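Reading a protein record of the kind used here takes only a little practice. The record below shows the convention in full:
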Amino acid sequence: MTATASLRKTLDGLPGVDQVGVEARAAGLGTRSIKTTSKAWAIDLAISMVDLTTLEGSDTPGKVRALANKAMRPDPTDPTCPAAAAVCVYPDMVAIAKEALGDSGLNVASVATAFPSGRAALDIKLADTRDAVEAGADEIDMVIDRGAFLAGNYGLVYDEIVATREACVRPDGSHAHLKVIFETGELQTYDNVRKASWLAMQAGADFIKTSTGKVQPAATLPVTLVMLEAVRDFRAETGRQVGVKPAGGIRTSKDAIKYLVMVNEIVGEDWLDPDWFRFGASTLLNDLLMQRQKLATGHYSGPDYVTLD
């Protein structure tokens, strides 16, 4: 059996997703309430999981430096506020973000592989990746070729993930962590999300990520639930743990906490860590900071309290 045939057999052999069941369970988990002390802990955890992101054609070095400063010190008035997990930028801004973050320990993530469309020749995608890694990127967020996936060309998608992972290797043999973006809003079915999850993990993904943030719908609770089930089952089968990153459309503390409840219920505490769960967001952090201050002081400061991105 060829590698492509074996891959297809594995993916086609996955059990189908019960759409009604997944959506009902996601809705149920989304109604869970947590106590004030747990809420404060959850907000701090969510802040520490944010990949603070700017992916606009209008990005400037000044904007990236300001974002890096915000990631390091989200609330300059409160030293107890945790830092974010990473700053996510285009490859040409990686060096600027890296310099701004200095020795803070925060990661620089860079989108690559012809983000957000993924429509480019493989050599261009790999050059995109190598440029970001050489500039100092700690993490690479690649996009799969959704057209190839939807056409059933799983082997091509697999090979591109493997090649991109190889392009993440540095001269010293270490490698930038690879997050694989599915653009779940274009995958059409939960079955496809499950297949894409297993395909990416088998190809060596360190993280699987819902969306680019450029297509609607982006992250949703049911899609993330399917991906969490996939990483849980993959670890049970292979012993290797893979992270999950919902991205796009997560804007409020209430939303973020719903995701954390789901992580706890579906995969457990092992994933309640920035090494294994991230939020791709640009506006979420502001709401987390406002809710954090409200819990601490009893007063809601409003949007003027936080910096604009």
Q: What stands out?
A: The chain has a mean pLDDT of 94. The chain has twelve helices and eight strands. The first strand starts at residue 50 and ends at 53. Residues 221-238 form the longest helix (18 residues).
